[in-house]
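<goal> How does this chain fold?
<body> The protein record starts here
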Amino acid sequence: MDVQLQELIDKIKKNGVAAAESSAAEIIADAEKRAAAIISEAERKAEEAEKKAKAEAERLEKASIDAIKQAGRNSILSFRDGINAELSAIVEAETAKAYDADMLKTLIPDVVKAWTSNADASSVAVLLSEKDLDALSKNFASALKAEIDKGLEIKSDAALDAGFRIGTKDGAAYYDFSAESVAALFSAYLNPKTAQIMKDAAGGIN
């Protein structure tokens, strides 16, 4: 009886230990799986965070470079426009000076006679500044007497500071020899030259 009891006790211990060991193994395996999953998720999140940080850094770098480029471009354009404005003002001032009384008293009669050689003088008008008309009216009355007798009109235009315009009285056709218009033609030629000079100069900066 004692032997059987001992065998029963041993069997219970053996089965209990085996069950405990099996349960422990399952718990350990499950814990290892969970630990591996946690590590994998942490690595995934870390990699994702690194990618996002790198992308954000690249975006900020590109935005900074673009901002610097745009600021530089704006500065160059502003400087170029300022230079062109200065040149245009100088050209207009010098053109206005060139349209002095001596030039106009010769130039206007020549232009009028060339125009009226192909048109009826009665339909032609010459416009110039009030100060130039006052200074040259007597000269024109003499030099353009024949054309004036045929209907040529010579009158002032408050919009003109220097130079003159000639055309048909109805405004259908005219030539603009005002200082402003002639200066604009010169400026249109100079501005691309100025831009090229500035471009060449900028290219030499390290």
Q: What stands out?
A: Helices lie at 2-98, 101-116, 130-143, 145-149, 179-203.
